[in-house]
Request: fold
Amino acid sequence: MNQELKRQLILENYQHPFHRGLKKEAGYVVKNTNNESCIDNLDISLKVEDGIIKDATFDGEACAISTSATSILLRKLVGLKVEEAEKLLQNYESMIHEGPYDEALLEELLAYQDIYLQPNRKTCALLPAKAVHEILEGR
Amino acid sequence: MHREDFPFLKTGAIYLDNGATSLKPNAVLKSMMDYYEKYCANIHRGDYQASYQASDMYEKAREVVQNFIGAEKKEEIIFTKGATQSLNQIIFGFFKNHLQEGDEVLLTKAEHASLLLPFLMLEKEIGIHLVYIPLSKEHTLTLEAFQNAVTEKTKVVAIAGVSNVVGDHRPLHEIGTFCKEHNIFFLVDGAQSVAHVTTDVVKDSIDFLAFSGHKMLGPTGVGVFYGKEKWLEEMEPLEYGGDMNQSFSSLGEVSLKSIPARFEAGTPPIAEVIGLKNAIEYLEKIGMDVIQSHEENLKQYFLEQVKSLPQIEVYNASVSGGTVIFNIKDVFSQDAAIYLDRFGICVRAGNHCAKALKEELPVQNTVRVSFYLYNTKEEVDKLIEALSKSDTLYDVIL
Reply:
């Protein structure tokens, strides 16, 4: 993915994020996620039924990287089985930490491929993953 | 002014985060190196020249602080590791034993975590009641709002001399006088004020004052608290150890040293105290009035220049002092700070440790520019130039 496309994806998802506006009704599990070292602070809610993520929403205040990563991740999560979601997260986290990952699986999340070049932004890109893990694992 | 005295400025950085910490002049750095190189010894306990000299410098520093804040006695000056430790010692060492259930402590939602959190803990522990003085439309503290908030149960007023977010200079003299007349304790968090304006604890009837060395050209790791002698005599130390006890036995018979030693357990930050002494002498040479008006001029200059940039929303334009909080329209403050960093401009983004203030401000997070004596109009010009190109912000940071 070229730099311009990455930038476009991040910006598009920051300025017009997927499912911004937190749903808290029955069936949704809400978790807060924040970075201790900065001011990013988001709530994420997932609706999981029969082992499948049926819906995903979020809200809060965070930087362009955190917000866009949350938007892209949540859009990809909807419709996935819990095991598939965990696999996606695992690959995503591995990419951020410069480990091996499946490009085909990550698709738009490849926008954060080079984030390791700015080590202090890794936590921004990983912000949504923490809350999604907690919800899927029932913590 | 005096930019040549600050080695960090040679990096070319435009340092506008003085609310977080200040730069250090050569005089301060050299005084600390001198200690380590020429008379590196512990204080109050060595029978040799280096230790005498170290003890002497350490106690001289106490006198320099005393004169700088207008205290009556040097024994009223206690060295700590910073304003946070100072405030914790005052609140848990004094107010915990002098307040009871139902007593009211007046403060504002703009106070720093270091002041607000210890009192919040005390509220849970002993049932005191924290009362927040409503802030004005400009988020400042007015004398009128203060007076309206006082009740018969008010026992303490605990506020910053200068707010670290909005930057307003609180009417300390008027509040202090009122407190004195009504037998209310007056505690001032001086972290943002002592470095920037003249402090006079006697004239302003301040019972307790806390501040940090690193925000006033001194090193990190040293701070001060001032307490009126009679209150210090009634205060409990929170730390026990060497150099604060007179004698003790295994039977539990303990006798403590007199003030100030009682509150300085263990080896203190000697080099840092000496650095702080030199920082204060440096500030005195320039003059606090000169520093204050320099900062205010820079703020006014920034406000004048920023008028041409409609995308910049300033939240504290009417407030005097050297702090500006603003946002670039529709840009998260941290993204704005990262953008400015690409121009070598250091600013702070966030809620500035006054997390309760978000309940009053129209926005949760802002960019904060805080000026000090070495900042210049040319630096403001560069900031304005970077802000004027903010339509390219995401091209720059992504």
